Amino acid sequence: MSKHVCISGCSRGLGRAMAIEFSARGWKVSGGARDQSRLSSLERELKNDFFLGFLDVTIPEKVETFAGLAKDNFGPPDLLVNNAGLINRNAALLEISPEEFSAVLAVNLGGIHNMIRSFLPMMLAKNQGIIVNFSSYWGQSAAPEVGPYCASKWGVEGLTRSLAQELPMGMAAVAFNPGVINTDMLKSCFGEDAAEHEDPKSWAIHAVDRLESVSPSANGETVLG
Q: Which residues, other chains included, contact 179 with Cβ-Cβ below 8 Å and sequence gap of 6+?
């Protein structure tokens, strides 16, 4: 029986590349994002059973609805990949508005919390599953002009370690550092220099290798993509 992976933020970038790679390997894929047109185009690239639906991770009710539909289609996920992310525009912290700061935290931390609240109960009922929270090199280091993003990813590391201590034996939560990949998010920081880094499609091959190999013994760790 094929396994079930659920991926947030799967309409573009790393999420999309992972969805395609997991599907090519025979996984059932449930994925959500806010961009319906990109979700529609993703359908044509998936090779196995899938469910794609609207998902705004910042709205608890939308997450709950999406989780219910994912469960109805494929049951609880074996792998829950909390990938949806947002980065602030390059600017000194003094120049970041409270609204922009809050928006980054709402997606990168609040979104993970909403996903966990909606999916963990069904995973606990089976006492099975791995939760993967996307972190970053900036989850353990820092850089100027991306203060809100760094703060959120440091938060992901702490949230993951705390959650790991609450899970029963046989389950795990890990933070996932994907590395430096040529995505729209990286382009917003590095501009044209982003093209010097690996593209999402080739990255997904070894990243999915790594995610497939995560076991409950990795609970609480930071995993490198």
A: 137, 198, 203, 224, 225
Annotated catalytic residue: which of 149, 154, 176, 203? Answer: 149
**What digits encode the pLDDT tens for the residues 126-176?**
999 999 999 998 999 999 999 999 999 999 999 999 999 999 999 999 999
| Rounded CA separation 166/186 (Å) | 33
Strand, helix or coil for residue 38: helix
pTM reported for the whole predicted model = 0.93
Strand segments (E) across the chain? 4-8, 28-33, 50-54, 79-82, 129-134, 171-177, 222-224
Question: Is there a catalytic annotation at residue 149?
Answer: yes
Q: Which amino acid is at 168?
A: P
> Is the Cβ–Cβ distance between 162 and 207 less than 8 Å?
no
Q: What is the pLDDT of residues 174-197, one digit of tens each?
A: 999 997 776 556 455 555 654 555
Q: Which residue's structure tokens are 């795990």? A: 172
Q: Could you give the 3-state DSSP secondary structure of residue 173?
A: strand
